[in-house]
Amino acid sequence: MSRTDRLTGRALLAVFCAGVLIPFAALLMAALNPPGTPLSGLSLPEHPTLAAFGRAWSTAGFGRLLANSAMVGLGVVPLALICATLAGYAFATMRFRGREVIFGLLLLGLTLPYEAAVVPLYYDLRSLGLTDTPVSLILALVGLYMPFGAFWMRQQFTALPKELLEAASLDGASSWTVLWKVLVPCVRPALTTLGLLYFLWAWNQFLLTLILIQTPANRTAPAGLAFFVGAHTTDVPMLAAATLIVIGPVVVVYLLFQRNFVAGMVSGAVKG
Question: In its keyword annotation, does this UniProt entry include Transit peptide (predicted)?
């Protein structure tokens, strides 16, 4: 790689980095102003304070809302990963009648907007008495995320050397043992990436939360933020503080697992 290419690459990275960090910096500087301070443009606060965070936290009840979001995310991730792993393993290694047709129908879920399934989901879950509970949101999200998860894991298992399966079969290993003791350890980075994506998607879910959960105290943080914005449209410091409170856990989770996330994405790109 020439010096010009390296400089161009670094310049592009700097531009992308600035595009990500500047909005966060603007939010932080706005949130450090006292609540009710009129703001115009990007400027440093004259008297930085955390009062906006405290007032936004207590006014919106973000403690309960963040706990609800964490409950949904931690419920969706393991259940969705298990379902995606089992489906991907079946489509990648097993031969059964109608396999390609079933997989093709499953992939149709990637092309259909999930908004089209909101109304049927609501009535189905209401008939089971599950609406207005975190269980309804968890089950709905697991089902909606299955097409992508099954496709992702099928590609990971298909890319592995077939000699692994043959060697395990010669040793007398069962299908269950082959999956969990041989294949899953090989695709652990991809599983971590998929789990992180599931958590981010579940945390940021908005429409399903509004429809399936009507009690304000049972809503998730993004839904609570939407109602908070509607009630404090002119208080920019409080709005900025509330936004940072909601996106903070997502940023922390990503920073903790960023190496695994990148490893899984690179692994999938190379194998694909």
Answer: no
Chain centroid to Cα 109, Å, comes to 17
Q: Which residues of 4-13 are buried (b: 16+ CB within 10 A; e: fewer)?
A: eeeeeeeeee
Count: domains in the chain: 1
pLDDT digits (tens, 9 = 90+) for 69-128: 999 999 999 999 999 999 999 998 888 888 889 888 888 888 888 778 888 888 989 998
pLDDT of amino acid 80: 95
* CATH code at position 79: 1.10.3720.10
Q: At what angle do helices 51-60 and 236-271 cross, to 10 degrees?
A: 80
Helix (H) or strand (E) holding 212: helix 207-212
pTM comes to 0.85
Q: Which stretches in the chain have pLDDT values below 70?
A: 1, 41, 264-272
Give me the amino acid identity at 149. G
231: containing domain? 63-271
**Rounded to an integer, what distance in angstroms lies between the CA atom of residue 14 and that of residue 151?**
34
Instruction: Report how far apart, in Å, the C-alpha atoms of 146 and of each of 43, 85, 235 are.
Output: 45, 10, 40
